[in-house]
Automatic annotation (TrEMBL):
Keywords: Membrane, Transmembrane, Transmembrane helix. It comes from Actinopolyspora erythraea. Pfam families: DUF5134. Residues 161-185 are annotated as: Disordered. The chain crosses the membrane at residues 12-35, 41-59, 71-91, 97-116, 123-142, 202-221. InterPro entries: DUF5134 (IPR033458). This is DUF5134 domain-containing protein.
Amino acid sequence: MAAMDMPLLPMWLRTVWIVGLCAVVVVHVGHLVALSGQHRAWHAGHTVMATGMALMYLLPRMQHPELYRAGLVLFALVALAQAVTTVALRAREGAVNPLWLLSTVDMLAMVYMLLPPATRPDWLNWVFVVYLACQAVAYGLGTWDRLPVFTSRAPTSVAAGAATAAPEHTRDHEHTVTPLTAEPAPDPAAGPVVGLVAHSSLGVRVTLAVMAASMAYMLAVM
């Protein structure tokens, strides 16, 4: 990142972003402490991401090159861990969780920002800017909350012994006859297909939108 007096990133604007990102950290740390399992890991990732962004706004690359090199290694490892988590959960849950996938892409954007400026092509800069701007809008509007993977219900399991012992009942449709056991009815008490579900709370959505916007703006002015 350039010097502290960048025309498009004056000190007052840096301060605004830093304060906003510190608020993001506080919110996600609160959820990290209160929750468990996938939710805790997901909030931990966003806590690290928001902390990294706050430090990038506070400490320019020119004055702190070692910090940026260390950050590059750290976020590359976190991005790798999240990619492995996304694939492993896909195998276990039978569906790709968009939250883990998007979090991995966001972490890759952090890795990209920490690369030496000479290695970052302008066109890829703007690809990430557009992506992160769309992320900010999507998070703010709660778009991801409404994805089918978060609203679908796991079907009720049918015991194998009962299925083989009991005769197969059928139900008549207008054009065909379908076995009742072909498509088990969803269990209203069952949980979503994936273990990590989207937050519907406005506070969390705002923090995610702020973080995505801060990343998009930094990439745009770098």
